Amino acid sequence: MNPSRWAGLLPVLLLAGCGDTAPPALNGYLEAEPVRVAAPIAGRLTTLMVDRGDAVQVGQPLFNLEQDNERAAVNEAAAKVAQARAQASDLDSGKRPEELAVIDASLRAAEAVLNQSGSDLSRQTALARSGFVSGANLDALKAKRDADAAKVAEMAAQLRAAKLAARDDSRIAARAGTEAAEAQLAQKQWALAQKTISATVAARVEDRYYQVGEWVPAGSPVLSLLSDQAIKARFYVPEPRLSQVRLGSTVTLACDQCGPPVAATVRFVAQEAEFTPPVIYSKENRARLVYRVEAWPSAADAARLRPGQPVDVLLGDPK
Predict the structure, then answer these.
(1) Complete DSSP assignment for 142-157
(2) Which are the contacts of 298, defined by CB distance < 8 A and separation ≥ 6?
(3) Of the residues 81, 94, 233, 319, which has the maximum number of CB atoms within 10 A of its CB?
(4) Rounded (5°) CA angle 102-107-111
(5) Does 13 score more than 80 pLDDT?
(6) What is the mean pLDDT of residues 257-276?
(7) Is the pLDDT of residue 163 over 90?
(8) Does the pLDDT value for residue 277 go beyond 60?
(9) What are the pLDDT digits (tens) for 295-306?
(10) Which phi and psi angles does 234 have, rounded to 5°?
(11) Do residues 16 and 316 lie in contact, with contact meaning Cβ atoms separated by under 8 Å?
(12) Residue 11, H or E segment
């Protein structure tokens, strides 16, 4: 153990011992849980906005993949939505004004023919009373008047139907088609959005795995981000001292060039024992079975720690 690490912990050790020999510090090391940033859709890397060592904020764009195909798909889906909405609106509103005008004109023409046939029948009926028109001719005029009246009724019915919307089944189908087109548009817009990836955490760019111009498979990380909150200490507690560690308890970390000792909160304690790893051992350890423990320092303290650094761990708070 490096004595310089524990210069600031001497009072703590003295108080902890109260005249007895203080328990030895445990050996551990710092490690990180980086966020590996990937796109769910494959594509060629066209833009890389950051590089190793850059600090990024939440929502900051990191990289772009080629978007030509997705943008074209969005435009096509948007056109289909417009088409489906127009068809649904047409079914809801009935015939166009121009079509209604044609039917209305036909109705007026049929009414004019009916008026004429009605006048002819009236005139011929008067002549028939005087014996100038035969009964057969009068019957023919009545039949023509009835036919013209039926034509007027038919045209009037067509005009009323033209002003109505389409049948309910057709309108329901049109609305369903519109919803399907809108859902497809949303899918295409999502795919386009996945070609521009932004940071989800405030962090530092630890590494990049692709160069601009390279093909990136779907789900393959392009960047690795390391936030201060991703640094933790891993150490192993021998079975006789396991009762000193519990979830939420505090341990103290010290390392070379780290400055004052750092408090860290225990968030993980292994449920099963394992043999002491060969790279983590101490002359003072008497038990061969140890339990893996992980503790996280605060973000402010983690800023001065580096993954891979060996640390001495004292079970307890330095304050």
Answers:
(1) HHHHHHHHHHHHHHHH
(2) 263
(3) 233
(4) 150
(5) no
(6) 84
(7) no
(8) no
(9) 989 888 888 888
(10) -115, 130
(11) yes
(12) helix 10-17
64: part of which helix (H) or strand (E)?
strand 61-65
Percent of the chain with pLDDT over 70: 77
Taking the C-alpha atoms of residue 6 and residue 173, their distance in angstroms, rounded to an integer, is 77
The predicted model scores a pTM of 0.58
d(CA 296, CA 249) in angstroms, rounded, equals: 11
Q: Which residue has the tokens 């594509």?
A: 43
Nearest to 251 by CA among 92, 66, 16: 16
Dist. CA 244–CA 221, nearest whole Å? 40
Rounded CA gap, 61 and 196, in Å? Answer: 7
Q: Which residues contact 272 (CB under 8 A, 6 or more apart)?
A: 291
Three-state DSSP class for residue 250:
strand
Alpha-carbon distance of 20 to 203, in angstroms, equals 44
The residue type at 110:
A
**57 pLDDT more than 60:** yes
Where are the alpha helices (H) located in 35-134, listed in sequence order?
68-93, 97-129
Helix (H) or strand (E) holding 45: strand 43-48
In the numeric block, which tokens belong to residue 254? 């010290």
Three-state DSSP class for 235?
A: strand
* Cα–Cα distance for residue pair 297/231, rounded to 1 Å: 7
Alpha carbons within 13 A on the beta-carbon side of 72:
3
Alpha helices of 135-280 — where are they, by DSSP H?
135-163, 168-193
Residue 235 C-alpha from the chain's centroid: 38
- In residues, how long is the chain? 319
185 contacts: CB under 8 Å, gap ≥ 6: 74, 77, 78, 80, 81
